[in-house]
Write a structure and sequence with these properties.
Layout: H1 4-8, E1 11-14, E2 20-30, E3 35-47, E4 51-60, E5 64-67, E6 71-74, E7 80-81
Length: 90
Amino acid sequence: MITLSSMQMKDIIYIEDGTKLGHLTDIEINVDYGRIVNLIVATKSKVLGVFGEEREVIIPWENVMRIGQDVILVKKSNFYISEPSEKKQT
């Protein structure tokens, strides 16, 4: 058995080229069937090497190939990438 908190500590890695995508931030569960539907991963892309935009990548559960001790290996196809999140100004 694996817990959400232990999954959040693992790196999400593309199986095709070994690129690190980010860390798991949330999961979507179909409560009618009791199954995980999507993994939600927060990523940061750097602009000019300094500033970063945070985006969420939604990975369908079918794309999860293996959950290891330190990493979660996923396929690249069928991802949904959200728009950059806007930081609230106070």
